[in-house]
Design goal:
This protein is mainly α and about 325 residues long. The chain contains 13 helices and no strands.
Length: about 325
């Protein structure tokens, strides 16, 4: 039996996932051009001409998050001030620039230059490990403490708790929170920026799971809003949302692409294009709701607004839950 080439395997992989026989592109085209149409077709049983929505959701979400995590790296976030020339932070450089603008005499400019030299020398000493005059003073800065604990270490906290009567000890939740905070404080010590980079990195990697959890929850909201429309089952609302999620992934991919081009080309008009995409996304969602549920504009708009309010509240709660979950994954 002949061996299959690498490119042949790649071709079969994409063909199996997306049915690159024309069905994938045909489905995407209809999805973008006709809001709500695909969902109606599936509810009516006309499905053979279109790509399976579950398969399409898996592919588009995987593609989106693959590109998203490639483009966005939490470790590129600078919480402490980005350095520019001679070790001076952007904030300091901005202040110096403003000072030069307001300098009226040569003496003023010399004073500003002296301040710049002093800051540069101080930064150089810190980077090289050379102690300055103020380095011998006691360090009054506190260590990094996520929840402002009264204890310094987990061992100290456990020792105090074990010495207390059973009725005066912290409950399970407070004990878990306290020990986790102390553990993070010991691990990251005074390096708070690294803590936030790590947490954000963990949190961002929970986004696919958060979206997966949000889908049945949002479908429940639609079920309640359209409870009188007996022809729609719970699964129909879920199907509608799957198509809406797929469209959102495609729109976000375009948004990320424009963002990268904007950062590379430095063209201001691309910001208008990004704003246009966001507006188009909201209009598309409204038209999809109108077409799929077939109610008047007044009911459609009012329910659309209420649905979005419920989604925002639920999303904030999910953000909080998954953020806490990310903390406990550290």
């Amino acid at each position: 039996m002949p061996h299959e080439s690498f490119w042949s395997m790649v071709h079969h992989f994409f063909a199996d996932i997306t049915h690159f026989d024309g069905k994938f592109f045909n489905t995407v085209g209809i999805l973008i051009r006709k809001p709500g149409f695909l969902s109606e077709e599936y509810v009516k049983g006309r499905r053979n001409s279109y790509l399976n929505p579950i398969r399409m959701y898996v592919f588009t979400s995987a593609l989106f998050f693959l590109i998203f995590f490639t483009v966005f790296n939490p470790h590129d976030i600078n919480f402490s001030g980005k350095k520019v020339e001679n070790g001076i932070t952007e904030g300091t450089a901005a202040l110096l620039k403003e000072g030069y603008k307001n300098a009226n005499t040569k003496e003023d400019s010399l004073a500003i230059e002296k301040a710049l030299k002093s800051l540069t020398d101080s930064s150089a000493k810190k980077d090289s490990g050379i102690k300055g005059e103020d380095d011998n003073k006691p360090n009054i800065s506190t260590r990094f403490d996520p929840i402002d604990s009264n204890y310094k270490t987990v061992r100290e906290y456990d020792s105090v708790q074990s010495s207390l009567p059973a009725g005066k000890r912290d409950n399970w939740f407070k004990r878990t929170l306290e020990r986790k905070s102390l553990n993070l404080g010991e691990r990251f010590k005074e390096n708070e920026p690294e803590f936030w980079r790590t947490v954000i990195g963990k949190f961002l990697h929970t986004l696919p799971y958060m979206l997966f959890v949000s889908l049945p929850l949002y479908a429940l909201f639609l079920k309640l809003l359209y409870v009188r429309r007996k022809k729609f089952y719970y699964a129909d609302h879920g199907l509608f949302l799957i198509h809406l999620y797929i469209f959102t992934f495609i729109l976000l991919l375009l948004f990320l692409g424009i963002t990268k081009l904007k950062n590379y080309l430095h063209q201001g008009w691309m910001g208008l294009l990004q704003t246009g995409l966001i507006i188009f996304g909201f209009i598309y969602a409204l038209l999809a709701v109108k077409f799929f549920y077939k109610q008047g504009w007044a009911k459609t708009i009012s329910k659309f607004i209420l649905f979005n309010i419920l989604c925002i509240i639920a999303l904030l709660l999910l953000f909080a839950l998954f953020f806490v979950f990310s903390l406990f994954q550290l």
